[in-house]
Amino acid sequence: MPANTTLHLLDLDRLSEQLPALATAYQSATPYPHIEINDFLSPEIARHTMDAFPAIRDEGWIHYVHVNERKHGLNKMDLLPPPLRDLIQQFNDPAFVALISQLTGIPGLLPDPTLEGGGLHQSRRGGHLNVHADFTVHPHKRLWRRRVNLLLYLNEGWQESWGGALELWERDMSQCARKILPLFNRVVVFNTDEDSYHGFPDPIQCPEEVTRKSIALYYFTEETSAPSKRATNYRARPGDGLKGLFIWADKKALAVYNVLKGALGINDDFVSKVLGMFSRKNHKK
């Protein structure tokens, strides 16, 4: 999308008016800078976007199915329905990214047009994402340091009893500091530091016909020298016991995969197809 395109899906005037208060709240939040904003889009645009969300069985989905997560992602712009593609393009527009820089206090943020690891996320009943700190460097841009996540939830009628809340953990992993339900039209923005631990580690208990849906955007800064590179750092919670060994072993295997991914310039499609076969065996569509 050209830089001068009018952002008709995002109310930048309203966000700009609220920005001083939002930035203060964001930058002073604990356990690390973050904010949740309800009713982020107009009700009509939010519902139109949610209704366009494609099913997991549709073309292009990446199946993240292993010890540390059970979710599905779609990050190919040409396969996204127009309402979702248009909204993501506007989240990546320079005018909106400049507002995110002001909100977070991080100058020079850059969007990722490849949506590496982002785009659409969706989890069925039983889905989970263990507590982790995100990968620190873009897999294919060695000077790009990951700085900020933006998550837009599109789950109308989501019940607290179903679980699925985004958990923000203390930097020392001593306890969960905040839980944020993935409610319809709620945006969460947070810093992605080396120890900004988050996830939804307990399997969600939504009905079989319901999924947990979100749009995930990641923002980077370009550094003058290559930042320290680390794969997604999954962590066991206090009380996880023996499960912690499996979390650790799976994390190490993923780290090796990410090294190969960056060195060979591959994407997640092949592994996704293999994992997808296991997913289909274990879940009737």
Biggest pleated sheet = 13 strands, antiparallel
Determine the number of helices (DSSP H or I, runs of at least 4 residues): 6
CATH superfamily: q2cbj1_9rhob like domain
Classify the beta-strand content into a percent band.
15-25%
Task: Return the domain count.
Answer: 1
Shape: globular
CATH topology: Jelly Rolls
In words, what does this structure look like?
The structure is a single chain. The protein is of the alpha+beta class and 285 residues long. The chain has a single domain (12-282), classed as Jelly Rolls. 29% of the residues lie in helices and 24% in strands. The protein has six helices and 13 strands. The chain has helices at residues 12-28, 43-51, 82-91, 94-104, 243-264, 269-282; strands at residues 34-37, 62-66, 69-74, 110-111, 119-123, 128-133, 144-153, 166-169, 176-180, 186-191, 198-200, 212-222, 233-234. Strands 1, 2, 3, 4, 5, 6, 7, 8, 9, 10, 11, 12 and 13 form a 13-stranded antiparallel sheet that branches. Helix 1 packs parallel to helix 4 (94-104). The longest helix has 22 residues, at 243-264. The two termini are 35 Å apart.
Tell me the layout of helices and strands:
Blueprint (H helix, E strand, L loop, with lengths): L11 H17 L5 E4 L5 H9 L10 E5 L2 E6 L7 H10 L2 H11 L5 E2 L7 E5 L4 E6 L10 E10 L12 E4 L6 E5 L5 E6 L6 E3 L11 E11 L10 E2 L8 H22 L4 H14 L3
Helix pairs in contact: 1-4
